[in-house]
Amino acid sequence: MQVDPRGQRFGAAITTVVLALVLLISGYRPLVAGVLLAAQALVFATGAFAGLRNAPYGLLYGWLVRPRLGPPKEMEPEAPPRFAQGVGLVFALVGVVGYAAGLFWLGVGATAAALVAAFLNAAFGFCLGCEMYLLIRRFAVSLR
Question: Which three-class secondary structure state does DSSP give residue 2?
Answer without folding.
Answer: strand
